[in-house]
Amino acid sequence: MKNILYDYYSKDLSVKVSTAKRAKMKRGEYIGGHVPFGLRKHPSIKNKLELDPEAAGIVRHVFELAINGMKTAEIAAQLNEEEVVTPGAYFQKTHPDTRKFRNTTEQMSWNSTMVLKILQQEMYYGAVVGHKRKGTEVGWKHSIAVPKDEQVIVEGMHESIVTKEEFLKANEVVRKMKSPSSRIARDYPLRTVARCAGCGRALQYYPRLKRPYYLCNSSKYAVETVCCQEKMYEDVINEAVWQALQSLFALSDELSGRLKKKKAALGNDQEAYRLSIAEMQRKLTKLNTDKFANMDRYMSGEMDKTVYLKLRSEMDQQIASLSESITALERKLQAVQAEASDEASTVLANIKKYAGEKQLTNEMVLAFIKKVLITDGEHIEIQWNFSDVFLQYLKTE
Description:
The chain is mainly alpha-helical. Among the domains are: 5-182, Putative Large Serine Recombinase, Chain B, Domain 2 (Hect, E3 ligase catalytic domain fold), CATH 3.90.1750.20; 255-346. The chain has helices spanning 19-26, 53-67, 72-81, 87-94, 112-119, 164-175, 217-221, 234-250, 252-299, 305-339, 343-354, 362-368, 388-394, and strands spanning 5-6, 17-18, 39-41, 49-51, 128-130, 133-135, 143-145, 152-154, 194-196, 204-206, 213-215, 232-233, 369-376, 379-384. The model is unreliable at 1-17 and 179-185 (pLDDT under 50).
């Protein structure tokens, strides 16, 4: 009875799993989506995994380094020195038509998090793991991690990359690391927009008490990198962004005046286009009426065939020309209407909203800035949230 729902995993949550899915998990069938790096779906046996030889060799190397006593950060640095391809870059290379890991760049480097995920993956010793996460509500829009003793782990389901003993030994390194849950969340204004200008990745924020700073993780683990390897101090970056915003706020009155004039001009253009389109449509209607009238006169014998054919040809050309002109003017009218949209007014409203602020805030940054690309403390590029339509208002007349 495949349609029967059974409350299998949770008594305190409204999470239902079909008995068919439960049975597959207990048989060790792999019913997940993305397959862990080093493995791949079997080409002929459904719900079964096999080794991906090239990637499996990299996974094996990671475990060997950990067993030899190296910490995750040291392993990441070693892999970058050896120019070993990252899991994301490897997936993009072997699946060029998919969107997963589409933001991976050639500068992407190994880091301690990537290494940690590999060392914690039980599937590498031949097991299939099910029910690693469970939903927090009906519909599974959100999920939480399931404790290890509640997961469904079936060993010996595919060829292993490492033995279980090697897996457990390598994880001694993991147990010495601090749990991510012990980290204290920090609030800083550029937390969602600060990027490395070299590789484009989000910068790591280090909330040191004396002087917080940013650092690109790629520069930590890579020997040769285009990324800045120096600390980029928060106070310097914040001040540069704050000054750029202050310059924008100072243009508030001038931009309001420009917007008012521009909208007035655009309004005149819209009216002119509408009048021209209406006049052309009137002419087009008259031509079509005259064309049918001529056909009636020809059919009744009041008009010579030669004259009728000549007039019809001339009218067809005029109709085609008018139709093209109307289409062109309608496109211009649409462009003017788009240019006169409310985006500029919205941006100016935000400028007036934040112009009186005394310090940089994350809310303010999100209202105006898409990215802050940081090369070093002296070279910072701000990419604004504005479209090309509004950017023209920022240019001096």
